[in-house]
Amino acid sequence: MMIFRAVAIFALVMGFSHVTDAHAQSVRIKDLVEVDGVRSNDLVGYGLVVGLNGTGDGLRNSPFTEEIMSNILERLGVNVTGEQLRPRNVAAVLVTGRLPAFARTGGQIDVTVSAIGDSKSLLGGTLIMTPLNAADGQIYAVAQGTVIAGGISAEGDAAKVVQGVPTAGVIPSGARVEREIEFDFSQLSSLRLALREPDFTTAARIEDVINRAVGRGAATMSDAGTVNVDLTKTGARSPARAVVAIENLSVEPERKARVVVDQRSGTIVMGSDVRISRVAVSQGNLTLRIEEAPLAIQPNPFSDGDTVVVPRTGAAIEEEPGIGLAVVPEGTSLSEVIAGLNALGVSPRDMIDILKSIKAAGALHADFVVM
């Protein structure tokens, strides 16, 4: 059977009315920018989880687990030199965490524990004291505590069931800060505000709002992603007070037109400022099916005839419903196009294919993101 697909084109003209852009809502500056220097730092450590119910690492397949266990026991005064360790209640893990800005010695942070060997589950295990290092190699926190696994696993002789991820878990407030980041915020004379989504218009609006609120010339836009603030011109008693006066000011952000589609779920998300140039769209399927079913005809008994194969061919044409040639006027918004396609009964997945084609034709004026 051979299947041929072609595009069925027929005339259909859709009319769309023009709409005006919706004004963006005001957003606080603290939700649009990051203050340069005020950031968190990632931490990582290598440790051991004990107390597992026979779901730990197989030491034959994970020799690093035996090594770290021997080192811990040696530090505790237990001599295990030359001993053959084969427990199934320990697992080697990587411990990760994030040291927030202005974290002080004695503070507590959450950590994530993930198995790196062939352990089946960390459920019920306890993380032994694990130092956490930053990128500079220094120890900034020490983690220890009971692991709360993110799943469960059960198995029998002939069946096994797993829900979630039992080989990873968290320890809330499981690490204590032992070293502070050397950063004296109170001595700053200027600040740099870094926009999370760089845009010249948004940066200019942030500059204008700050200058109107705290003092003329206090803020200066450097580029699309940076606004410099001279703290000496804000009149604030300290840099922290200046940030308080700035971060709660409201600005209307300006963003690029963007269309985001999820092919798996058929979800389409777009902004109100997406526009389409004049374009003609046609969508539909024409299916031609050809089936060969030859028939063999046998001669009569006791005759000298030969077997003859008679060809038998079946052909059919099927046309699936779709839209014909749709003419979209100049400057039509994408939301109007989607509304028109929905009125015609076009499925979300077909709609995504149509949007891809419009973008490829250069008529869709927006960033097109496919997930």
From TrEMBL:
Pfam families cross-referenced by the UniProt entry: FlgI (PF02119)
Q: What is its main location?
A: other
One GO cellular-component annotation of the UniProt record comes to: outer membrane-bounded periplasmic space
**Keywords (A to Z) from UniProt:** Bacterial flagellum, Cell projection, Cilium, Flagellum, Periplasm, Signal
Q: Where in the sequence is the signal peptide annotated?
A: 1-24
Q: What is this protein called?
A: Flagellar P-ring protein
GO terms assigned for molecular function: structural molecule activity
Where does this polypeptide localize?
Bacterial flagellum basal body
The UniProt entry's GO biological process terms, in alphabetical order, are: bacterial-type flagellum-dependent cell motility
* Role description: Assembles around the rod to form the L-ring and probably protects the motor/basal body from shearing forces during rotation.
Q: Which organism is it from?
A: Pelagimonas varians
Q: Which domain of life is it from?
A: Bacteria
Q: How does it assemble?
A: The basal body constitutes a major portion of the flagellar organelle and consists of four rings (L,P,S, and M) mounted on a central rod.
**What is the phylogenetic placement of the source species in the record?**
Bacteria, Pseudomonadati, Pseudomonadota, Alphaproteobacteria, Rhodobacterales
| Family of this protein | Belongs to the FlgI family.
